[in-house]
Design goal:
2 helices; mainly alpha; about 50% helix
Length: about 35
C-alpha cells in the first residue's frame, strides 16, 4: 500500500480549509455529532 501511495506523488492536491474545518468541527466542535 505504501508503494502505491508513493506512485501518486505529484498528483496530490491540498484539501480546502473549509473541508478540513467541517470534518474537525464534526468531531470536536461545539455541536459535535460524531461518535455519539
Amino acid at each position: 500500500m505504501a508503494y502505491h501511495t508513493l506512485l501518486l506523488k505529484g498528483n496530490d492536491h491540498p484539501i480546502d480549509q473549509h473541508l478540513l474545518d467541517k470534518h474537525y468541527q464534526r468531531k470536536h466542535g461545539k455541536n459535535a455529532y460524531y461518535g455519539q
